[in-house]
Amino acid sequence: MDHTPADILAFGEAMVEFNQTGQGEGRLYLQGFGGDTSNFAIAAARQGARVAYVSAVGDDPYGCWLRALWDREGVDHSSVKTDPDAFTGIYFVTHDTEGHHFSFFRAGSAASRYRASDLPLARIAQAKVFHLSAISVAISNTACDAAYAAIHAARNAGVKISLDTNLRLKLWPVDRARAVMLDLIRHSDICLPSYDDLRVITGLQDPDDLVDLCLALGAKTVALKLGGEGALVATASERHRIAPHPCTPVDATGAGDTFAGAFVARLLAGDTLVDAARYAAVAAALSTEGYGAVEPIPSSARVRAALSSNNITETI
Question: Domains in the chain, please, with CATH?
Answer without folding.
Answer: 8-315 (3.40.1190.20)
